[in-house]
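Hi all, posting the design record for the shared folder.

TITLE: backbone redesign
STEP: 1 of 1
STRUCTURE INPUT:
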């Protein structure tokens, strides 16, 4: 027990001295953390509210009802299921509910940002779906005209857009017209940009024509780790999704998430516009400074990004992982990532992916992004000792330890 206590303490101490730029992570506020730790973490609630397979859930039903109704109201949806315990399981449930083995679907492809669950190696392949890809331009934007032509040709059961890399809003309205002609549904995987959508500064998928939003709840949306499905869909499809969530792909759905998820939505309703706006400003500032310092930042002709993400081409196959490893030694945490031109093999990507949402949560703004870019340059381009830079990174991070854009204690 002592060793485990020590390891956990060391992790906490180290991460408080790091600049975390992982695009798929965030931190909850102290208020939401308090909601997260409760007796609910010990309980089971198979089924949907008021139709359970266990007793003792009178308050759980009220909590889950409240969470789902608030998310439906905020996102303008007529359906919400907060039970998926991850974004991947949300995708499994949504895909299974509206397709059958052998159906064809269109995704972005991993080169252009789709999550592995959209692909043959993940949920789509496991469900027996035939996956083909939408078309992209060289500037990291979707080619709507060619993609619509492919929809008309392939006649997919559904298309899935959004995903792991999403620098710019996607052309939902244009795709909707083609999907309507062939009877295809649109699933928008908002895992990375849910907070930006909630704040009204990215795009509004349901208003623009998506049928279903699948998502996780812990990236730009700073809630507990978990998943969710939202949509404007018919009652039969709603029931199919609910049946896919349970019993097909999960049992209990980690009840202690629910109060914290509600708290995070309330925080976004109060502070989200300022928070999300600063996230994007920070991403653009970091991208510009990296570009000015000599890095090959993608999508420069389009202003680099309109989300929390920045993509950098590190030059050669495998350099993404090499640079990420060097930066980790300097207490700068980010990840290697496939970029356009890498193909589908994730082992030796040329790119790195950067996200600004967590450091923004701790109060960093454009000046701090410029300083982070300089740290990255010193390690990657100037070949300074990562361990030496790590000391300066720790001192820099020491001034940013308080979670912002949240209710005070």
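Okay, here is what came back for every position:
SEQUENCE:
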């Amino acid at each position: 027990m002592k060793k485990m206590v020590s390891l956990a303490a060391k992790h906490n101490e180290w991460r408080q001295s790091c600049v975390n730029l992982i695009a798929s992570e965030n931190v909850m506020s102290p208020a939401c953390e308090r909601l997260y730790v409760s007796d609910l973490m010990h309980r089971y609630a198979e089924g949907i509210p008021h139709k359970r397979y266990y007793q003792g859930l009178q308050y759980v039903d009220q909590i889950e009802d409240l969470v789902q109704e608030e998310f439906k109201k905020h996102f303008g949806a007529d359906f919400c299921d907060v039970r998926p315990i991850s974004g991947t399981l949300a995708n499994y449930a949504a895909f299974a509910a509206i397709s059958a083995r052998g159906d064809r679907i269109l995704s972005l492809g991993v080169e252009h940002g789709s999550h592995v669950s959209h692909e043959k190696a993940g949920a789509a392949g496991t469900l027996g779906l035939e996956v083909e890809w939408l078309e992209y331009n060289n500037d990291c934007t979707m080619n709507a005209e060619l993609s619509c032509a492919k929809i008309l040709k392939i006649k997919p059961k559904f298309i899935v857009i959004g995903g792991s890399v999403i620098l710019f809003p996607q052309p939902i309205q244009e795709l909707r017209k083609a999907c309507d002609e062939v009877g295809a549904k649109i699933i928008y995987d908002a895992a990375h940009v849910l907070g930006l959508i909630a704040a009204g500064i990215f795009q509004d998928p349901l208003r623009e024509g998506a049928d279903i939003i699948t998502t996780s709840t812990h990236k730009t949306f700073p809630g507990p780790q978990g998943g969710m499905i939202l949509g404007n869909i018919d009652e039969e499809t709603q029931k199919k999704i609910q049946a896919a969530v349970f019993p097909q792909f999960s049992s209990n759905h980690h009840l202690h998430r629910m109060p914290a998820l509600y708290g995070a939505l309330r925080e976004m309703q109060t502070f989200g516009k300022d928070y999300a706006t600063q996230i994007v400003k920070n991403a653009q500032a970091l991208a510009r400074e990296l570009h000015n310092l000599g890095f090959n930042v993608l999508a420069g002709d389009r202003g680099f990004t309109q989300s929390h993400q920045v993509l950098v081409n590190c030059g050669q196959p495998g350099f993404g992982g090499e640079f990420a490893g060097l930066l980790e030694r300097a207490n700068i945490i980010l990840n290697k990532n496939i970029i356009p031109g890498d193909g589908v093999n994730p082992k030796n990507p040329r790119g790195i992916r950067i996200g600004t949402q967590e450091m923004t949560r701790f109060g960093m703004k454009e000046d701090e992004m410029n300083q982070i870019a300089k740290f990255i340059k010193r390690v990657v381009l100037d070949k300074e000792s990562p361990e030496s830079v790590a000391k300066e990174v720790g001192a820099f991070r020491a001034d940013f330890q308080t979670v912002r854009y949240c209710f005070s204690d």
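COMMENT: Residues 257-292 form the longest helix (36 residues).
Let me know if anyone wants the other runs.
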